[in-house]
Amino acid sequence: MEELLKLIQSDPALWEIVEQLKSPEEEPADFFLNVANMLSVELEDLHRTDLSDKLAALFGGLPEPAYKMGRLLLPVARDIWMMKSIPNHEAIKD
């Protein structure tokens, strides 16, 4: 998550995209965690669909720099999905 935040903070185009997508009171880290949680749900359905189709649907309407975020959000989403797959897992907080 730190790498993602650094990328966003160093790229004005990405920062503008994030500011447009997140709610005004939402912290960037919380926004990315929410997006990663959404992606984790999509990963659960991955066996029935193609990941590239999912990514195109999620990021396709956004400017091309947004794809940089996808590359960094996918590992977070994967980790959330893996934790949810473990019986008796604790809720992921960060």
Describe the fold and architecture:
The chain has five helices and no strands. The N and C termini lie close together (9 Å). By secondary structure, the chain is mainly α. Helices cover 69% and strands 0% of the residues. The longest helix has 20 residues, at 66-85. The mean pLDDT is 82. Helix 1 crosses helix 2 and helix 3 packs across helix 5 (66-85). It has helices at residues 2-10, 12-21, 28-44, 51-59, 66-85. The chain is globular.
Features:
mainly alpha, globular
In short:
The mean pLDDT is 82. The protein has five helices and no strands.
Q: What's the helix-strand series?
A: HHHHH
Structural class: mainly alpha
Morphology: globular
Cα-based radius of gyration, to the nearest Å: 14 Å
Number of strands: 0
**Approximately how much beta-strand content do the residues carry?**
under 5%
Supply the number of helical segments: 5
Low-confidence stretches: none
Q: What share of the residues lie within helices? A: 55-70%
Mean pLDDT: 82
Largest β sheet strand count, sense and barrel closure:
none
N-to-C span: 9 Å
Which helices and strands appear, and what pairs or packs with what?
Elements: H1 2-10, H2 12-21, H3 28-44, H4 51-59, H5 66-85
Helix pairs in contact: 1-2, 1-5, 3-5
